[in-house]
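Much of the work behind modern protein science is quiet bookkeeping, done one molecule at a time. The protein below has been through that process, and both of its lines are reproduced in full.


***
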Amino acid sequence: MPEGLNVEVAHKLSEHEHEAARSERWHELVEVLEVAMLAIVAIATAWSGFQAAKWDSRQALLYGESSRDRFQADDLSTAGGQTLVADSAGFNSWLQARGANDHTAMTIFERRFSPAYHVAFEAWLKTDPFNNPKAPPGPAFMPQYVNPQKQEAARINDDASRKFDEGTDARENADKYVRDTVLFASVLFLIAMAQRMKGRGAKLSLNIIAGALLVFVLVSVVALPRA
């Protein structure tokens, strides 16, 4: 075999060896990249699922507390209404006793007023209601009248509304973590597809899409509040 032909054959064999070595290094690099993304996805998916579960638990807790507070507020509001009814009935009896000029009965009825109603009653008397046509019709219409039970019921109702809103926010956060968990699963799907591909272009394209999606979801998870 001529010497020139031997050199040419050796050169071609060397080129093939270099090509094979470069291809092997490229595949190794891609495999390392895929393994790294898989590891990140595994950890991020576990974290996202953990946060979704915690936000779900927080939602249930807040909704439960809100319902409990609503019942408590209803009880207080009912008790406050009953107190006002009793005070109003006593006030009507006081008016009848006054009409009969029965000062003893008037004193008894005044003593039976609730503390808050008694304050308003004293303020109402100062308006000269029996001679002043502009006077309020009764102590319950005075600005000094404050029903403590109804006031407490209103405060508890406000707390219940706040807790319900917080529970709704918790549910939304849980939904967002679940959404990100699904997106992490999509990253796994893309990587699995890339591993099946033989062509370098298709393999690289799928890994780039998977990497971009992974970065997007990671940023989304980092931005979400933690329970």
The chain is about 85% helix and 0% strand. The helical segments are 3-99, 103-112, 115-125, 148-196, 200-223. The chain has one domain: 29-223. Residues 3-99 form the longest helix (97 residues).
